[in-house]
Amino acid sequence: MLHHTRAIVLKKVAYADSSLIVTAYTEKFGLQHYIIKGARRVSKSGHSPAGMYQPAALLDMMVYNYPHKPLNYTKEVKWGLLYQNVLTQVVKNAVATMMMELLTKCVKEPEPNPELFGFVEQYLRVLDEAEPAVVAAMPLHFMLQLAAHLGFQIENNYCPDAPLLDLTEGRFVHHKPLHTLYLEGLLAAVASQLLSTNSAVTLYRVKTTLAQRRQLISAFERFYDLHIAQFGSLKTVAVLEAVLA
């Protein structure tokens, strides 16, 4: 059956001579995989549809959906949003690509979640227009906000009596845990600031150094590894750290 849905591209791989297999998070069907026939074929004018399927692209799609098939097809695809910066500006593209890798690792079943779709879509829209001071903190903020949408939110009970963030407990505690997966000092304070920031557009208020961002991303990766099976690590983090430096 033919359906209309909005979609966010997570990744693409070459298929056959001129096609692509695109993994997308869709508003109507959740995680889906589509064969895009002829997407890598270049026209006489030098144009190729493959550019529409970059990670983080927001698309409007007419698709055939058969729930029990691992691969479906598209009938018509057009831009859902023409970014000004996300697909072309190096730093913003690195942030968006990291976000898409994180989603790919966390969302593994074709279950619709319009609220999650809306959150990611809005975050990408903010990223497209954000100033550098906001962009620098967005990867960390996105990791914390996504965890909340996935059901394992960190409790922001930071206070003088609970100044250490125990990542295994998902909350701030008074005494140092017996394990090493915790944050203290400025790192714990920054984590609390990030947790208390509801809107990404105000992230310029959260002051971080490059070293702090590296430590926090590493800690949050380990936090995700506690909750997502076979999470491992994010390959895009190295590129992200390089461009944010």
How is the biggest beta sheet arranged? Answer: 5 strands, mixed, barrel
**What is the C-alpha radius of gyration, as a whole number of Å?**
19 Å
Quote the CATH topology of the largest domain. de novo design (two linked rop proteins)
Question: Number of helix segments?
Answer: 7
End-to-end gap:
48 Å
Helix content: 25-40%
CATH superfamily of the largest domain: Recombination protein O, C-terminal domain
Under the CATH scheme, the architecture of the largest domain is Up-down Bundle
Structural class: alpha+beta
Uncertain parts = none
Whole-number average pLDDT? Answer: 94
The number of domains: 2
Count of extended strands:
8
Q: Given this structure, which CATH class of the largest domain is correct?
A: Mainly Alpha
Strand share of the residues? 15-25%
Sequence of strands across the biggest β-sheet: 1-2-3-5-4
| SSE pattern | EEEEEHHHHEEEHHH
Morphology call: elongated
Give a quick precis of the structure.
The chain is an alpha+beta fold. Helices cover 36% and strands 21% of the residues.
Keywords:
single chain, 245 residues, alpha+beta, OB fold (Dihydrolipoamide Acetyltransferase, E2P), de novo design (two linked rop proteins), 2 domains, five-stranded mixed barrel, three-stranded antiparallel beta sheet, 8 strands, elongated
